[in-house]
Amino acid sequence: MSRANASLLLAVTLALCCCAPVGVATAQGAKIDARLTPERLGAATTVSLGFALSPRNGHELAPLSAMQLAYPANLGLATSGLGLAYCSPPALEATGSEACPANSRMGSGSATVELPLRIETVKERVSLELFAGPSPDGYLHVLVYASGVFPVYAQVLLSGVLERGQLKIAVPQIPSFPGAPDLVMTEMHLTLGGPLTYYENEGGRLVAYHPSGVGLPSSCPAGGFPFAATFVFVNGDQASARTAVPCPGRS
Amino acid sequence: MRGKRIVRGHGFAAATLALLAASLSVAAAHAHAARRPPPAAHAASVLNVHDEGRLRFVHASGSVIIDEGKVSGTFPGSVRVRFLYDGEPQVSAQFTIIGHGGSISARATGRLSSPTSVTPSFSGKMTITGGSGRYAHIHGDGDLYGVYNRRTYALTVQAIGKLPY
């Protein structure tokens, strides 16, 4: 290939990469959607993230083993005032979300899991509750409590750790029926913040209040607030997706 | 958007201010010494600093919190602190104390413990980065201790140091 052709090929490749719309499924079969509600610079907001995983050509989607969510490093997740108490994982697994202090609740969500049986693939809706977990290492830890009722009655605890600009979540195996394959997650929606009620002691009595939420920076980067996700599957495959929330007034 | 109340106890900012005050005092002494004719062989003086301050939340921008308040101690004055907490256990602060005769600026880094409590504490090192007026040539460093209130975003800071000048 001549140097001119190589340059042309490189230019076309770069152009195609740069023109790929954000939020669209990558070649690995993952897509991500992000929302900031409300989106006012310098003010508190609620962060909503949605993910969808789809099987590759001719393959079945494998169960997840981990996911890594990247967010703008200057987003005020750590300074959100969410998770002013922590929930004990053993208590959460033993008794459910009622075991968790109100001030440990950080958000909610939902997920769709699939059970690939021989005759058909059965879908199940799962509710998600986010709590702050104990911190043995100085990092903020997040617990995602997933509970489904039908056709598989199960509760699963996902654990994550918040680092600068990213949230890493480990996903355990989700068993279904004896002899049947594990459940496979195909969609997930997570909301950090939202209509939460916390309590604080004022003059010896508990007073309810609503935590303000995640602080948005006072300025918006060119191209909007970037979000990305990387999914790791039990078979070693990976899938990635990215998106950006347009700056206010530019959407 | 943030909390309205000032947290009990001493704020990080206050501690920072105190530390700054101490550092400033040391720096001032150092600057004063610098104006004298150079001594032939002079033993270094040491200023023992133990200051603190209690700061109130002013505003935030993402992972950055701005607090202001008064600092008392060796170098009393008003202070403005830019506190960064982005999820890592390591937190950082930049601050300027304005007192009689000039201002002192410093930066500090520390490690936050018990991040899921309402008032996690931190400790670390502080370094003077500059000054103005009488403290134009100030320098030095010390230890910084503080408390960050995750509900009100108030900071309480305590600065301790033996600063040679």
> What's the overall geometry of chain B?
globular
Fraction in helix of chain A: under 10%
Q: Helical element count of chain B?
A: 1
**What number is the mean pLDDT of chain A?**
86
Strand content of chain B: over 45%
Number of strands of chain A: 14
Question: Could you walk me through the main structural features you see in this protein, from its secondary elements to its overall organization?
Answer:
The complex is a heterodimer of chains A (251) and B (165). Chain A is mostly beta strands. Chain A contains two helices and 14 strands; from the N terminus they run αβββαβββββββββββ. In chain A, strands 1, 2, 3, 4, 5, 6, 7, 8, 9, 12, 13 and 14 form a twelve-stranded antiparallel sheet that branches. A two-stranded antiparallel ribbon of chain A has the order 10-11. In chain A, strand 5 (121-133) and strand 6 (140-148) form a beta hairpin. The radius of gyration of chain A is 20 Å and the shape is globular. Residues 1-27 of chain A have low confidence and may be disordered. Helix content of chain B is 15%, strand content 51%. An eight-stranded antiparallel beta barrel of chain B has the order 1-2-3-4-5-6-7-8. With 165 residues, chain B is mostly beta strands. The interface between A and B is medium-sized, with 38 and 26 residues.
Map the helices and strands:
The complex is a heterodimer of chains A (251) and B (165).
Chain A: H1 3-19, E1 30-37, E2 44-53, E3 64-70, H2 89-95, E4 105-116, E5 121-133, E6 140-148, E7 154-163, E8 166-170, E9 184-192, E10 198-202, E11 205-209, E12 214-215, E13 225-233, E14 238-245
Antiparallel strand pairs in A: 1-2, 2-9, 2-12, 3-8, 3-13, 4-5, 4-9, 5-6, 6-7, 7-8, 10-11, 13-14
Chain B: H1 12-35, E1 46-61, E2 64-72, E3 77-84, E4 90-99, E5 102-113, E6 121-131, E7 141-148, E8 155-164
Antiparallel strand pairs in B: 1-2, 1-8, 2-3, 3-4, 4-5, 5-6, 6-7, 7-8
